[in-house]
Amino acid sequence: MPRREDIKKVMIISSGPIVIGQACEFDYSGTQACKALRNLGYEIVLVNSNPATIMTDPDTADVTYIEPLNLQTMTEIIEKERPDALLPNLGGQSGLNLSSELYRTGVLEKYDVKIIGVEPDAIERGEDRIAFKETMDRLGIEMPRSNPAFSVEEAEKVADELGYPVVIRPAYTMGGTGGGMVYNVEELRTIASRGISASLVGQILVEESVLGWEELELEVVRDSKNQMITVCFIENVDAMGVHTGDSFCTAPMLTIAHELQERLQKYSYDIVKAIKVIGGTNVQFAHDPETGRVVVIEINPRTSRSSALASKATGFPIALVSSMLAGGLTLDEIPYWREGTLDKYTPWGDYVVVKFARWAFEKFEGSEDKLGTQMRAVGEAMSIGKTYKEAFQKAIRSLETGRYGLGFAKDFHKRSLDDLFDLLAEPSSERQFIMYEALRKGATVQDLYEKTYIKPWFIEQMKELVDLEEEIIKSKGQGISDDLLKQAKKDGFSDRDLAGHREISEKDSRAQRTTLGGVEGWHPGPVSGVEDAA
Q1: Using CA atoms, how far apart are residues 500 and 487, in angstroms rounded to an integer?
Q2: Are strands 279-287 and 214-222 parallel, antiparallel or unpaired?
Q3: Which of the listed CATH numbers 3.30.420.10, 3.30.1300.10, 3.30.470.20, 3.30.70.580 matches domain 214-363?
Q4: How many other CB atoms sit within 10 Å of the CB of residue 106?
Q5: pLDDT of 249-283, one tens digit each?
Q6: Cα(372)–Cα(454) distance, rounded to whole angstroms?
Q7: Quick one: which of 419, 495, 193, 477 has its CA closest to 485?
Q8: Position 21 confidence tier, pLDDT thresholds 50, 70, 90
Q9: Hey, what CATH topology would domain 407-515 get?
């Protein structure tokens, strides 16, 4: 890493696609990066492909270019601006890929531009499927059985050896673009061809399926002294097979044993040390609850969508801190770090965070409401509650879809149990609402687990909501007891939803709740890694 005194001007590349969730991710990361580095005294040159983001506000950087992100444009800007350093891992996948291309083609060497925040070959070790697999083999960390391919014919041979289904993972793409789960050779030919075209280097990984395993993520921050912390432990409620951008998840992990979390943390630290990323890294694992087998799925050697979630969930600003670390500071010089690690395994205060994705299939002609290994979400909502049930219900209301609870969505409550199970054959944006009505019609927790691979604990929580809702509906016309109303509010039922079930006005529902002392309140959430801060 270059010496801090040798750097005066830093270039940041950040893409801003017109997709709600992704634009927010890059806005957050890039704006935080510019702010941190300017505070450290650096001059900032920002290149962004989207004029509609808050990052391109004139006050964010010293110089801002709104240009297509390609090799020719970037070469011309570098020639004109002559930055001392390039920060690649805070501008999303496009920024990372383009930085790698500038390095490989010799542009950075020609204009004497140093890369900060991540070593050039670290991008390859994290993004290139062959290099990443070699690194994991060296560390003794298991990955799903797999082999790379550069042609459809090679992919067919690998799939025959592994046995179907297999997963196609293209190298150097974002959101699983170009990849997918394939169940036969016809599907493989289509998706392998698409993946090779989507990959920056024409490379895909053909990987054994871990469909139905638990998907777990850690957000890790490392500095140049090799000091590391785990900012956030994230448990995906949806099992492997649904892209993490579409899967709804909780922080902290609610059903994962402490010893497994410690094991995942050790693996994450070993990986981040080997990849040599300075700043934030997202590490994703799959865990087979039957055998206990753990495999690493992939890492993002950059701030990602999950980093933004982890930052908001914990109060630890990953992009801001990552920028400061890339700028030459170390964790012990920043107040967000303390000896050892952050509080693990338990909520950071008395709260649970739930993230729920937002889709808009109706806006994309010909798109099918079906979730898989390619991300389909256009945004997400994050909610905070005292319990999982409360946070879950708040997340549903935050989606701005006109739904105020899980029950009675569309016509699912009018359908037979067999019809509902047919609808659950494949994951979709409506899966949680369909499961809710299936439980109302007598489906067992085990039935739904076998159909969806969602852990029984989460389905049990949903069943408790269904049972409570049924009690509220039965009280229609005869009033609701104070205890029942209190429990409903604790479990996250909205006044509007309760009013609908009781066939009274929302105003009357709110009035009864208020008389019981159930009024709006604000509770401080301790910031991870900082004492006496909220």
Answers
A1: 17
A2: antiparallel
A3: 3.30.470.20
A4: 9
A5: 999 999 999 999 999 999 999 999 998 888 889 99
A6: 15
A7: 495
A8: very low
A9: Carbamoyl Phosphate Synthetase; Chain A, domain 4 (1.10.1030)
